[in-house]
C-alpha cells in the first residue's frame, strides 16, 4: 500500500497537498468565523477565468488565478456592507467571470480536458516546479497569518469593539480576502476550482463545531485537512476514482455527523429560543435585546480576550 | 437562414421558456434572499445530471431527481438560521465531488462535464423542449395561484404567520418550484451560470421598480432580452452562448446599480434582509 510513495509524482502530490491543506485550514477558520463562506466559494469560481485566460496566453495558471482572485477580492472588500446586496453582487461577478473563463477556453483548442482539469484539479500531475511555487506561497501565507493573527481574530469576532480599539477593521477585511485569494490560487491544482470549499471550509467548519477555542479549532482543522488530503491521495493512487472526489467525500462525511451531533457538547443558544425570551446582557446598551448571533459573538469574544491576555 | 435550422428553433424555444419562468421565480428568490440556495441547487443538480448520463438516461431527468430531493432536504432543515452558508456549501461541494466521480466512471467525461457545467442550449432536443414547456407552465400556474400568500410570506414571514398563512409549507413549496426552475435553467446556461437567468433579471428589475407585478414583468422582459441577445450574439460572434448571456446579464446589473439612483434618488432603498439565505420559518407564536 505504501509502495506508491516511491513515485515522484506521488511525493509531489503529498508535498503540495500537505502545504495546501495546512494553509487552507487556517484561512478557512477565519473564513468560517467571519461568515464569508460564500465569498470563498465565489473567489474560487472567479479564479476559473484567470486560470483559463492564463492557459490561453500560455502562462502558468497560478498567475492568472492570482490576478483574477486578488482583483475580485479587492472588489468584494470595497462592496457595500448590506449582506443581501453583497451576495447578489458577488454572484453576478462570479457568473460573469465563469462565462469569461468559458470564452477563453473555447478560444483554446481541446478546451474540454483543460477546463476539466482546472475545475476539478490534477493533484497527481503536479510537477517539481509546482511544488516549489506552492512552498513559496505557503511560507508567505503562514508568515502573513502569524503576523496578523491577533488583530484578525479580534476583528473577526467583534468588528465594532475592534474598531473602537483602533484596529483597522476595513483594511484587515480586504487584506484577509487577498489572503483567501492566494490560498485559492494555491489550492486549484490540488482540488480544482469547484471543490476548494472542501479543503478551505470543510476542515475549519468541522473543527469549529468540535471545539470553540480558536487556537484548538485551527489545530484540529489543520489535522483534519492533512488527514483528508493524505487519505485521499493514498485511496486514489490505489484505486481508479479521482482524488477530488475522495477529498470532497471525506470532508462531507466527517462534517455531517459532527454537525448533527454537535448540539450534544455545544451549548449554543438557538436563535429561535432567544427570540422568544429576550435576555439582557451587560455588554449591550440598556434596552437592546440580544440576538443569538450577537450573543454567541459576545461569548466567544470573552473567550478570545481571556486567551490573548 | 439560421433560424430555419431545427436546433436553432429549439434553442430559441427553450431559452424563451426558461427566461420567463426563471424571471418569475427569481423575483421571489431575491425577495427571500435565497440566491445562494439557488446556486447550491444547481450544483447539486450537477451530480444528478452526470449520474443520469452514466446510467444512459436524459440528464434533465437526473437533474430533476437530485434537485427536488435536495430542495426537500433544505426545506426540512429550514428552521436553523445560523451558519447556513457553510452547511449549504458543504452539501454542494459534496455533490460536485459526486459528479466528478460519476464523470470519471464515464468515458467521454470531459466534454460532457463542460456541457453540463456551462450549458448546451444548442443541443437541446425537441423532447427536452416539450418537457420544459410542461414544467414551465406548471410552475407558472402554481406561482400564479400562490402569488399573494407567497409574496406576503416572503416580505414579512412573521406577520404572515400570525395572519394564518402557512409560511413553512409555502417555503417548502417554493423551494420545490425553485428546484424545477433551476433544473430547466441549467439546460440553457449550465450549472455554473444559473445566476445569470435566475437572479440577475429580478435583481435588476427590483432596482427600477418596487411594485411586485411590474417587477415581475420587467424581470421577464430582461430575461428574454438576455437570452435572445445572447443567442444572437453567439451566432454572430461565434462565442459560447452562455458567455454571451452571462455577459449581458452582468453588464445590465452593473448599469442598473449605477443608474437606479438617477431614476429614483429617494425611492430606492434596499429591501430588508429577512434572514440570511435561509428558508426560515419564524419561531412559533406563543398563545398566552
Describe this entry's structure for a reader.
Chain A has a domain of 192 residues: ABC transporter involved in vitamin B12 uptake, BtuC. Chain A is globular. With 309 residues, chain A is mainly alpha-helical. Helices cover 78% and strands 0% of the residues of chain A. Chain B is an all-alpha fold. The radius of gyration of chain B is 19 Å and the shape is globular. The relative contact order of chain B is 0.18. The interface between A and B is large, with 61 and 61 residues.
Alpha-beta classification of chain A: mainly alpha
Low-confidence stretches of chain B: 272-288
Q: Structural class of the secondary elements of chain B?
A: mainly alpha
User: Unreliable stretches of chain A, pLDDT < 50, 5 or more residues?
Assistant: 269-298, 305-309
**CATH topology grouping of the domain at 2-192 in chain B:** ABC transporter involved in vitamin B12 uptake, BtuC
CATH T-level fold name of the domain at 3-194 in chain A: ABC transporter involved in vitamin B12 uptake, BtuC
Helical content class of chain A: over 70%
Q: Which CATH class of the domain at 2-192 in chain B is shown?
A: Mainly Alpha
Any idea what the CATH architecture of the domain at 2-192 in chain B is?
Orthogonal Bundle
Amino acid at each position: 500500500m505504501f509502495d506508491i510513495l516511491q513515485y515522484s509524482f506521488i511525493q509531489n502530490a503529498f508535498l503540495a497537498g500537505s502545504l495546501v491543506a495546512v494553509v487552507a485550514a487556517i484561512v478557512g477558520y477565519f473564513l468560517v468565523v467571519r461568515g464569508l463562506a460564500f465569498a470563498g466559494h465565489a473567489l474560487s469560481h472567479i479564479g476559473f477565468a484567470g486560470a483559463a485566460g492564463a492557459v490561453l496566453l500560455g502562462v502558468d495558471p497560478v498567475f492568472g488565478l492570482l490576478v483574477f482572485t486578488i482583483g475580485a477580492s479587492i472588489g468584494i472588500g470595497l462592496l457595500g456592507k448590506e449582506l443581501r446586496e453583497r451576495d447578489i453582487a458577488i454572484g453576478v461577478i462570479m457568473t460573469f467571470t465563469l462565462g469569461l473563463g468559458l470564452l477563453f477556453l473555447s478560444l483554446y483548442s481541446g478546451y474540454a480536458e483543460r477546463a476539466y482539469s482546472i475545475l476539478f484539479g490534477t493533484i497527481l500531475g503536479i510537477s517539481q516546479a509546482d511544488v516549489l511555487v506552492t512552498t513559496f506561497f505557503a511560507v508567505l501565507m503562514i508568515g502573513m497569518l502569524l503576523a496578523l493573527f491577533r488583530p484578525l481574530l479580534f476583528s473577526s469576532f467583534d468588528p465594532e469593539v475592534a474598531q473602537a480599539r483602533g484596529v483597522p477593521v476595513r483594511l484587515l477585511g480586504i487584506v484577509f480576502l487577498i489572503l483567501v485569494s492566494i490560498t485559492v490560487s494555491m489550492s486549484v491544482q490540488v482540488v480544482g476550482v469547484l471543490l476548494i470549499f472542501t479543503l478551505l471550509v470543510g476542515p475549519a467548519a468541522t473543527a469549529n463545531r468540535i471545539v470553540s477555542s480558536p487556537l484548538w479549532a485551527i489545530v484540529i482543522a489543520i489535522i483534519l485537512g492533512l488527514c483528508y488530503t493524505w487519505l485521499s491521495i493514498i485511496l486514489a493512487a490505489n484505486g481508479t476514482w479521482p482524488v477530488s472526489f475522495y477529498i470532497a467525500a471525506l470532508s462531507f462525511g466527517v462534517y455531517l455527523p459532527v454537525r448533527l451531533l454537535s448540539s450534544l457538547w455545544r451549548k449554543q443558544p438557538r436563535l429561535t429560543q432567544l427570540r422568544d425570551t429576550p435576555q439582557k446582557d451587560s455588554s449591550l446598551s440598556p434596552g437592546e435585546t440580544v440576538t443569538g448571533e450577537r450573543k454567541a459573538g459576545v461569548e466567544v469574544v470573552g473567550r478570545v480576550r481571556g486567551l490573548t491576555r | 437562414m439560421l433560424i430555419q435550422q431545427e436546433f436553432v428553433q429549439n434553442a430559441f424555444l427553450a431559452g424563451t421558456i426558461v427566461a420567463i419562468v426563471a424571471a418569475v421565480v427569481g423575483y421571489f428568490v431575491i425577495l427571500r434572499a435565497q440566491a445562494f440556495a439557488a446556486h447550491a441547487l444547481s450544483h447539486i443538480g450537477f451530480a444528478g445530471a452526470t449520474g443520469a448520463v452514466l446510467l444512459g438516461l436524459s440528464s434533465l431527468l437526473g437533474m430533476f431527481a437530485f434537485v427536488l430531493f435536495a430542495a426537500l432536504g433544505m426545506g426540512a432543515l429550514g428552521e436553523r438560521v445560523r451558519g447556513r452558508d457553510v452547511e449549504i456549501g458543504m452539501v454542494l461541494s459534496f455533490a460536485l465531488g459526486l459528479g466528478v466521480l460519476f464523470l470519471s466512471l464515464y468515458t467521454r467525461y470531459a466534454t460532457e462535464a463542460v456541457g453540463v457545467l456551462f450549458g448546451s442550449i444548442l443541443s437541446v432536443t425537441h423532447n427536452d423542449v416539450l418537457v420544459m414547456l410542461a414544467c414551465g407552465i406548471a410552475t407558472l400556474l402554481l406561482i400564479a395561484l400562490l402569488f399573494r400568500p407567497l409574496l406576503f410570506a416572503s416580505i414579512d414571514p412573521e406577520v404572515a404567520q400570525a395572519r394564518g398563512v402557512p409560511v413553512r409549507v409555502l417555503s417548502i413549496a417554493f423551494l420545490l418550484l425553485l428546484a424545477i426552475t433551476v433544473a430547466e435553467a441549467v439546460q440553457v446556461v449550465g450549472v455554473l451560470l444559473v445566476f445569470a437567468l435566475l437572479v440577475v433579471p429580478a435583481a435588476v428589475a427590483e432596482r427600477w421598480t418596487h411594485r411586485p407585478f411590474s417587477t415581475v414583468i420587467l424581470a421577464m422582459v430582461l430575461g428574454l432580452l438576455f437570452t435572445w441577445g445572447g443567442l444572437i450574439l453567439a451566432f454572430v460572434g461565434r462565442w459560447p452562448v452562455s458567455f454571451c448571456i452571462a455577459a449581458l446579464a452582468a453588464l445590465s446589473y452593473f448599469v442598473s446599480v449605477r443608474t437606479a439612483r438617477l431614476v429614483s434618488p429617494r425611492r430606492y432603498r434596499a429591501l430588508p434582509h429577512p434572514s440570511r439565505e435561509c428558508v426560515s420559518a419564524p419561531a412559533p407564536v406563543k398563545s398566552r
